[in-house]
């Protein structure tokens, strides 16, 4: 999940949380910083990590708990998005993280970087889809805030704090996720030369499209510049949305898979490039990684 | 007048500082019965500058304090035991309302329902709708990460907060956001911190477009089990109701005997109140689907309310259920716990058994769609024997919810009331990490001391100032 290391020479792949605790404890004791990695699918955050050891989370893999009726699921951080999608899809559900990048990426990296995607506005950002987690912080403490239930305000919200902290406060080991039912009807349209004002109104209007995405067609095998629109819901809702959409421009149906391409080629620049190291942010870092051994340098933090 | 009181009076004027016990009595409890504590002082800033000035005076005096909104909290979180209470109800300006960006910036004392009324002319509303919304403040909602029936579809307070200006307990003023453009999610950490991290000076919240169509259904059941199982079936069918509430026979009886009578069938074992909203065509399709699904799931009857007056009547019974229970006994102990939705029926049976065993009457009225139970016990907490029975029953209920993989609070907060359950819910290492997060915001441990996380869990809290150990 992180940029190339400066001088990485060793890679360790802990196969249990206890082993992860040992790795962090050793790193603290020997002051040898760690570069945390999932599937190593993610773009660089813009800064090199000053570390000699790479810790891969890929062995903390698999779904440990899934009750479809509760629409909740727990999995290891190294579980891939593809595995998550396959398991939930079998029950007509999904965890609609659908982040920028591809499905070979891990759940842990998606949450650690809080990487959203083209559907985040409508289906939820990573911060909204994580119910709780388990992690090992920079003091080698095992921490498990939140829980598996969909509503929970017990205790201070370390789940929110660790989500999107780019592995600089704790190494995520398990994620408890909120699932949703997949829409019964799900269709996508390419609108070339559409009416921008109408599409803007449509995106904000009562039909609640899953996405209205302005993009170039060439990188997706389509012509010109235009909008990709995804509609989801019950049949009546989608039909009614489609009728309104017709007034926005010439529509051509496209396969849902086009969004995989969108996620791969239209990713915006990383928010990690401009990390604000405010006094409060420095204090957070000092509390959870006092030795500076977790991804040092990644977020442009001073040496 | 103490030197602290005098210094506070310099900031807000003498009339806005209360120091005599007789005048402080009204602030000795929140909406949780049975717990009372008298503040030593109360101070009421009216502007951001006054609030910041007040917090700086408190910092200069190394004085602990508790921020308070409307006092509608249900966990004892707003109690100030012998320390200064900072009341925010005078800070009630809506600073900006942008119908295009769909945001509003408000002071912490703005009442929840007032914001929705201000947004209404623009076809917008503030989505989090705790049942106390006619009185509770946005600042209090932030402190507790408040929920409400419509959180099922629209999310809790945190999902609607964009940014906030905070005065930290040491008097420093900072702006927090969610980190979507880079940065730790410090706003996510702040919301729900129960007043332990600082005080909101102003907050920018999201406003939600009013749905094109809203339909409310009332399904009645001859068994609580069937009603509880029906909730899972609704959610599993892929319908996302705006709200999905369950009321049991005891609650129905209380409501129907009160001025809030909503026309719920008195002979039902439970009713489900289900609301769907959105674009008109999709909603009508959901209503058809839901009606069939609820009947298949065992509903004896399904009433569909399209008309706003009819819908309001159905909702009145739910929103005023706590008030209706006031007819039964002088106090109402409202509990708040969460269990996995698929275990609702089992937990409701367990709760019934616990009530019978302790000789207390449990009225259930709760957010079934997200498994957020509210087992309420009407009682007289001034009767020590009855109070002990209620406490014992509530403890057993919480233990059962934790054992079922749930949580001790979904929306009311830990406050003082639930501190004792935190060790059962979280590991010592996790509680210690929570203490460390608090240390980031409030290293002096002066903001709402003794709430939310038990102090014994804080491993590095050695140098607690004299006199504050045990309550810190």
Give the SSE map.
The complex is a heterodimer of chains A (303) and B (472).
Chain A: E1 10-12, H1 17-30, E2 34-37, E3 53-56, E4 63-67, E5 72-76, H2 81-89, E6 93-94, H3 107-113, H4 120-123, H5 126-129, E7 130-137, E8 142-143, H6 158-162, E9 170-178, E10 180-181, E11 185-192, H7 196-204, E12 211-216, E13 225-233, H8 235-246, E14 250-254, H9 258-265, H10 279-288
Parallel strand pairs in A: 1-3, 2-3
Antiparallel strand pairs in A: 4-5, 5-9, 6-10, 7-8, 7-9, 11-13, 11-14, 12-13
Chain B: H1 3-12, E1 17-18, H2 21-24, E2 41-43, H3 48-60, E3 65-68, E4 84-87, E5 94-98, E6 103-106, H4 112-119, E7 124-125, H5 138-144, H6 151-154, E8 161-167, E9 173-177, H7 186-190, E10 199-206, E11 208-209, E12 213-221, H8 224-236, E13 243-248, H9 249-256, E14 270-278, H10 280-296, E15 301-305, H11 308-319, H12 321-325, E16 331-334, E17 337-338, H13 344-358, E18 363-366, E19 372-373, E20 375-379, H14 384-403, H15 422-425, H16 428-441
Parallel strand pairs in B: 2-4, 3-4
Antiparallel strand pairs in B: 1-2, 5-6, 6-10, 7-11, 8-9, 8-10, 12-14, 12-15, 13-14, 13-18, 16-20, 17-19, 18-20
Describe the structure.
The complex is a heterodimer of chains A (303) and B (472). Chain A has helices at residues 17-30, 81-89, 107-113, 120-123, 126-129, 158-162, 196-204, 235-246, 258-265, 279-288, and strands at 10-12, 34-37, 53-56, 63-67, 72-76, 93-94, 130-137, 142-143, 170-178, 180-181, 185-192, 211-216, 225-233, 250-254. Among the domains of chain A are: 63-181, Uridine Diphospho-n-acetylenolpyruvylglucosamine Reductase, domain 3; 186-265. In chain A, the strands form four sheets. Chain A has a five-stranded antiparallel beta sheet. Chain A has 303 residues and is an alpha+beta fold. With 472 residues, chain B is α+β, with helices and mostly antiparallel strands. Chain B has five domains: 3-87, 2-Layer Sandwich (Uridine Diphospho-n-acetylenolpyruvylglucosamine Reductase, domain 2), CATH 3.30.43; 94-209, 2-Layer Sandwich (Uridine Diphospho-n-acetylenolpyruvylglucosamine Reductase, domain 3), CATH 3.30.465.10; 213-323, Alpha-Beta Plaits (2-Layer Sandwich), CATH 3.30.70; 329-414, Alpha-Beta Plaits (2-Layer Sandwich), CATH 3.30.70; 426-472, no CATH class. Helices cover 34% and strands 19% of the residues of chain B. Chain B contains 16 helices and 20 strands. Chain B has a seven-stranded antiparallel beta sheet with strand order 15-12-14-13-18-20-16, sandwiched between helices. Chain B has a five-stranded antiparallel beta sheet with strand order 5-6-10-8-9. Chain B is globular, with a radius of gyration of 22 Å. Mean pLDDT of chain B is 94; it is low at 462-472. Chains A and B meet through strand 8, helix 6, strand 10, helix 8 and helix 10 of A and helix 7, helix 8, helix 10 and helix 16 of B.
